[in-house]
């Protein structure tokens, strides 16, 4: 079997209404969908998290992969990615993220070739039902006035209560970023009251807090049984100082388990499979974390294609027992026929089809690409107060 073509397609998926976080308003996601075709009629699909990957793949990597065996993932990687320890100091990690999406497509091909779901290629299922969190944040009101508009702590708590009522959700994670310590404590108090004592509540500060404000905030959150606080401050070193003032576990998107083990913080990593360079590198990262006593789960903001990859990895890896994040309720549409996914009673079933086990929604893929070509990447940093300037941290 030989690769005959590789194509990368950038797509925009707007949110029903933007949600707010520490550095602006998040209007939607831009992701790059990768198609890999073979001479045996088997095609695989993958996803890269960065719009820059479209050009990287189409102008450089695609031609280098023509004629290669898609089952030879190491060979394909060596054709596309220079030595990363050197490249990271010069040109950044776009090649790694780009190939990570290609590698996902190669796994999809491999599963279809052997007529097995991906989790079977990874060793079999430790679980078939995959835990997921609902997500909450302050949100703008959409133009029709039919969605969003959560502007107060009580509004956010009512949204969470609605998710529990409509979907059986009791796992929640959301933004805690405003710089107003009293208002954030009030929001968590309202959410805890609305959901009850047994619900899981995790928070994400996106590095918004100064050390003094973070100490005050975490002290005020102690009565509310917070499962985890992601990036309350800007660095592992600040987290180490903060640990002296709070027993709430910390997590981060910055994948440095050696430093975390050395400092004793953070307790967990929240990762994207392709940012790390693909499933093989992600599995190595997870096993390292397991040996060091660090938790791992997956973050949100991807299409159903990458989410399917998450589901298979979490099915196959016993250590990944914590629920992952999700933004499924916020998305206007998805580029897979099965999406947007909709967790019920906190869980999604792992797909049982061959490879990733999901099917591309061709019209939605074309529409998402049309939105990208017309508008450029979705804005993740829109500043309502001054659209011409980006926000700087800490907020308080």
Automatic annotation (TrEMBL):
It catalyses: D-glucarate = 5-dehydro-4-deoxy-D-glucarate + H2O. Pathway: Carbohydrate acid metabolism; D-glucarate degradation; 2,5-dioxopentanoate from D-glucarate: step 1/2. GO terms for molecular function: glucarate dehydratase activity. InterPro entries: DgoD-like, Enolase-like_C_sf, Enolase-like_N, Enolase_C-like, Mandelate_racemase_C, Mandelate_racemase_N_dom. Residues 153-249 form the Mandelate racemase/muconate lactonizing enzyme C-terminal domain. Transmembrane segments: none annotated. This is glucarate dehydratase.
């Amino acid at each position: 079997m030989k690769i005959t073509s590789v194509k990368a397609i950038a797509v925009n998926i707007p949110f029903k209404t933007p949600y707010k976080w520490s550095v602006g308003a998040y209007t939607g996601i831009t992701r790059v969908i990768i198609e890999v075709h073979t001479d045996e009629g088997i095609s695989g699909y993958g996803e890269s998290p960065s719009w820059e990957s479209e050009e990287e793949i189409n102008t450089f990597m695609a031609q280098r992969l023509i004629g290669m065996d898609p089952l030879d993932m190491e060979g394909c990687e060596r054709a596309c990615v220079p030595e990363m320890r050197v490249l990271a100091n010069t040109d950044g990690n776009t090649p790694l993220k780009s190939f990570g999406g290609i590698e996902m497509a190669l796994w999809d091909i491999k599963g279809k070739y052997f007529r097995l779901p991906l989790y079977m290629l990874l060793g079999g299922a430790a679980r078939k039902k995959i835990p997921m969190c609902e997500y909450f944040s302050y949100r703008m009101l959409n133009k029709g006035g039919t969605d969003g508009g959560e502007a107060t702590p009580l509004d956010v708590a009512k949204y969470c209560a609605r998710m529990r009522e409509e979907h059986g959700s009791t796992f929640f994670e959301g933004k805690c970023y405003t710089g107003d310590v009293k208002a954030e404590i009030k929001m968590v108090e309202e959410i805890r009251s609305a959901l009850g004592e047994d619900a899981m509540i995790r928070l994400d500060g996106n590095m918004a807090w100064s050390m003094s404000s973070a100490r005050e905030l975490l002290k005020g959150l102690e009565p509310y049984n917070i499962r985890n606080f992601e990036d309350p401050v800007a660095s592992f070193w600040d987290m180490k100082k903060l640990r002296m003032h709070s027993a709430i576990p910390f997590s981060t998107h910055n994948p440095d388990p050696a430093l975390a083990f050395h400092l004793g913080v953070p307790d967990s990593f929240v990762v994207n499979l392709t940012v790390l360079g693909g499933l093989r590198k992600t599995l190595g990262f997870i096993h390292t974390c397991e040996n060091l006593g660090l938790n791992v789960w997956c973050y949100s903001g991807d299409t159903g294609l990458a989410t399917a990859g998450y589901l298979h990895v979490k099915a196959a890896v016993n250590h990944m027992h914590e629920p992952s994040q999700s933004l499924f309720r916020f998305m206007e549409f998805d580029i897979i026929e099965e999406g947007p996914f909709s967790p019920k009673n906190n869980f999604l079933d792992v797909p049982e089809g061959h490879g990733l086990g999901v099917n591309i929604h061709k019209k939605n893929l074309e529409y998402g690409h049309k939105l990208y070509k017309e508008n450029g990447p979705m804005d993740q940093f829109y500043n309502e107060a001054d659209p011409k300037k980006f926000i700087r941290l800490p907020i308080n």
